[in-house]
Amino acid sequence: MASSTKNRQPKKNVVAQARGKNAPRAASNGARNRALWETIKSIGGAIIIYLVIRTLLVEAYRIPSGSMIPTLLVGDWLFVNKLVYGPTVPFTNTHLPGYSDPKRNDVVVFVSPPQIDQPEDPQPTLVKRLVGMPGDTLYMRGGLLYVNGLPQRQGFASTTNHVDPSEANSTSDLFVWQHRIEVKSSRFGSPPEIPTHDNWGPLLIPGGHYFMMGDNRYCSKDSRYWGVVPRDNVRGQPLIVYYSYRPSPSDGDSPVCNPDTSDRPLPFVTDIRWGRIGDRVR
After folding, report:
1. CA-CA distance, 271 to 53, in Å (whole number)?
2. Distance between CA atoms of 128 and 111, rounded to whole angstroms?
3. Are the C-beta atoms of residues 247 and 74 closer than 8 Å to each other?
4. Is the N end or the C end of the chain the one with fewer CB atoms within 10 Å?
5. How far apart are CA 136 and CA 132, in angstroms?
6. pLDDT of 62 over the 80 cut
7. Could you tell me the strand order of the sheet in which 234-244 lies?
8. If phi over 0 gives left and psi between -120 and 50 gives alpha, with beta otherwise, what is residue 243?
9. Residue 82 annotated among the catalytic residues of the structure
10. Confidence at residue 125, expressed as pLDDT on a 0 to 100 scale
């Protein structure tokens, strides 16, 4: 009896052995899963930080036209301060509080009022100079802008030889909107029956709206054409030029509105405007 007990072999635990053989593999898979999850969290965190910065603080913007020469040139890349006037909550037109309000002569980034002549992009994001505040009376005579009866600085193109004389008296169906806010009788005189590029107004800027114009007046499609800009459309203020290059002639405006072009290959590498990098926008 004792001999039988002594010779009896213990039963093998097949389940335990199977688990033992697979344990290293399971541990390896777990480590890989944890590493993958950490990578996903890192990438997700970086994306969230980028979106927060871009939405609420600073965004990059490229100048595609010569409407703001000489302040901004075609080929300038800007950092835009979105916090200054109050950032916009994504997917809404609601603004968080800013630390300043738009002021006359600020260079401002904003969403354009609807432009009926370009249905492919009716509300582009633009950059212009704020020349008219709520309650201001604006008009232009002979290409000179007046704000509340005081003459303002001439536009860039009016001091150059690039202006086509016929442009001064040109008109557009887009000017019709001006009749809605014209001042028919005032000390500033009566508005012209048909507004032209260089002769329009007086216009009384309504509350909560701004009148925007480009510094390069003869190459700027601005509030004269598509109207005053609501406060809710304001997006920020340019800070500095962080990169700039001379574009090829095929990029952007015609030579009249963009005279500073490059004939070099790959101009974004070979024709950089080093002297503009770091310039503050004023």
Report:
1. 30
2. 11
3. yes
4. N
5. 6
6. yes
7. 58-62, 76-81, 234-244, 107-111, 125-132, 209-213, 229-230
8. beta
9. no
10. 94
Q: What is the pTM of this model?
A: 0.80
Q: Which residues pair with 230 in a beta bridge?
A: 209
Supply the DSSP symbol for 91. Answer: T
Calpha distance 270→39 (Å, rounded) = 38
Is residue 70 reached through a cis peptide bond, with omega within 30 degrees of 0 on the bond before it? yes
Residue type, 214: G
Least confident of 152-156, 160-164, 206-210: 160-164
63-276: what CATH class?
mainly beta
Place of tokens 């860039």: 156
3-state secondary structure of 18: helix
Selected catalytic residue, list 67, 220, 223, 244:
67
Mean pLDDT of 181-202: 93
Residues 6+ apart with CB under 8 A from 93: 232
217: tokens are: 């007046």
User: Which of 9-13, 133-137, 159-163 has the highest average model confidence (pLDDT)?
Assistant: 133-137
**128 catalytic, yes or no?**
yes
Quote the CA–CA distance of 44 and 49 in Å, as a whole number. 9
H runs (alpha helix) in the chain:
2-7, 14-52, 165-168, 223-226, 267-270
Pick the catalytic residue from 65, 128, 223, 244. Answer: 128
- pLDDT tier at 265 (50, 70, 90 boundaries)? very high
Domain ranges of the chain: 63-276
Where do we find the tokens 């609420």? Answer: 56
Q: Name which of 19-28, 126-135, 221-230 the model is least confident about.
A: 19-28
- Whole-angstrom CA distances from 142 to 43, 86, 130 are 57, 37, 20
